[in-house]
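Quick one:
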Amino acid sequence: MYRRIRGFMLLAAFLPLLASAAGSNITLPDPEGNRHSVQKYLGQGKWTVVVIWSVDCPICKKDIFHMAFFHDEHKGRDATVLGISIDGVSQSKRVQGFIRDQSLSFPNLIGTVDTPEQLTGKSFVGTPTYYLYNPKGVFAAQLIGPVTQSQMEGYIKTLAAGKGG
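Output:
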């Protein structure tokens, strides 16, 4: 069963997904309540990994540190990470606690369960979900489930070598 799920995750990463500009106009608050346009984080000449997470997601609690390491290693060069909690602003204190407890060094915003679909136009399956945007800010791929730093580096390398970059 695990192999099937893992195989599906890998397949999902490389399916040719159409670009969506839906996320361009979304504005979300950060945990302190300041509003930010999601668009300002996309593109900018770097790959952007948008990780959708929740404070109650056991996989997120266990594995999100990989994206903090990925962000720290790549932010000055070729990629960055944006986190979006789907817990809603009523859970801001819990979101802040999660960010602190997980030592998340990348920016995080707060949305709802509707936010992922608004970003891409794709159905949202669950957390964690990763959306990859190419250096021009165009949606390139979706990954569902746990992803390590080295796996993310491999996905981006493969996308960059093809039509995704």
